[in-house]
Design brief:
single chain, 326 residues, alpha+beta, binds biotin, elongated, seven-stranded mixed sheet, 31% helix
Length: 326
């Protein structure tokens, strides 16, 4: 009920009468009054004026199921939300739910991860109260070979969502790191379960540094947070809802051609590696070249010194700028 009340208060132009809420939700005035008081206890500033009703003045940076449900403005992405104060890893939970048959678009979010996972077997530090940890479960009807492009769809959606909510000028370090002022703001880990020619499910997990005042010493040279860059506290639920909305739109464009044709230009506009010298580090070979941007399959096009153009597939290499992380 709290989620519905929050949604009504946010959508209402000014005051929403208690009676209107009772009629729509089919509950008593006392029940509404109690729910509003619980919201106040959680940090929402709700004004109650006799004969006019309720009006929401300010929402805190809380991530709860009710808050997420009330913010979501999508058809399917994030419509089924599971929220945990503490979890091992939202990707692990999303994969379990994928096995158990959870629907396309299920979102798992948490405030703290005890075993957050990064790419290449690394761990993802996941302190509570300041970051976004979430995993989206999808069931695309596409060949498994096309699935890596979904990571780029999420990178683009996350960059757009962050830009919209924070005003930060974010960029993408191909294929899927979100960067602000040359430092990493967010990372994406995509995992999937497939048969030879069929995808059971894909889990796209994303970790975003939002409200940390400072980064841990060991990563402060290469990582940053929205707060460090803007000096402001950002409501995490707003960012999550915005990314879900962008992902839904971008995913539907992706499905039309099952590649990045429709998103390539937008993505290339944000790619920090574009028109830069890059170092490509493969399992057993390394070379330098000039990055031209991605093609419609999401592969980075790199012009080598001899003038030939090589397509780099995201799974096989890591890309470095010539002088550091970007
Ligand atoms: C990277 O190494 O850049 C990817 C980091 C991905 C971290 C996110 S946090 C939410 C989700 N759950 C995990 O365990 N990992 C991803």
């Amino acid at each position: 009920m709290k989620a519905e009340i929050l949604k009504m208060l946010r959508e209402g132009e000014s005051y929403v009468s208690g009676q209107q809420i009772c009629d729509i939700l089919g509950v008593s005035r006392t029940a509404v009054w109690k729910a509003v008081n619980q919201l106040k206890d959680e940090g929402y500033q709700v004004e109650a004026v006799r004969n006019r009703g309720y009006h929401i003045l300010e929402s805190p940076d809380v991530v709860t199921k009710e808050e997420l449900v009330s913010m979501m403005d999508t058809k399917w992405a994030g419509q089924n939300v599971c929220y945990f104060d503490k979890i091992d890893s939202t990707n692990i939970r999303a994969k379990q739910m994928g096995e158990e048959g959870a629907p396309h678009g299920t979102l798992i979010a948490a405030d703290y991860q005890g075993a957050g996972r990064g790419r290449r077997g690394r761990m993802w530090e996941s302190p509570s109260g300041s970051s976004i940890y979430m995993s989206l479960l999808i069931r695309p009807d596409i060949p498994p070979l096309n699935a890596p492009m979904l990571t780029l769809v999420m990178a683009l959606s996350a960059a757009d969502g962050l830009k919209e909510c924070t005003g930060l000028d974010v960029q993408i370090k191909w294929p899927n790191d979100i960067v602000a002022n040359g430092k990493k703001l967010a990372g994406i880990l995509t995992e999937m379960s497939t048969e030879i020619d069929y995808i059971n499910y894909v889990v796209i997990g994303i970790g975003i540094n939002v409200n940390m005042r400072e980064m841990q010493k060991d990563i402060e040279e290469t990582a940053t947070s929205v707060r460090i860059e803007t000096g402001q506290v950002t409501r995490r639920s707003e960012v999550i809802a915005s990314i879900m909305k962008k992902f839904e739109e971008n995913y539907e464009k992706f499905l039309e051609t099952q590649d990045l044709q429709a998103l390539q230009e937008q993505y290339n506009h944000l790619v920090i590696n574009k028109n830069k010298e890059v170092r490509i580090l493969g399992a057993n070979k390394e070379f330098t070249g000039y990055a031209l941007g991605i093609n419609e399959k999401g592969e980075l096009q790199v012009k080598k010194e001899d003038g030939t153009i090589k397509s780099i597939f995201s799974g096989e290499v890591s890309v470095r700028g010539m002088y550091g992380y970007v």
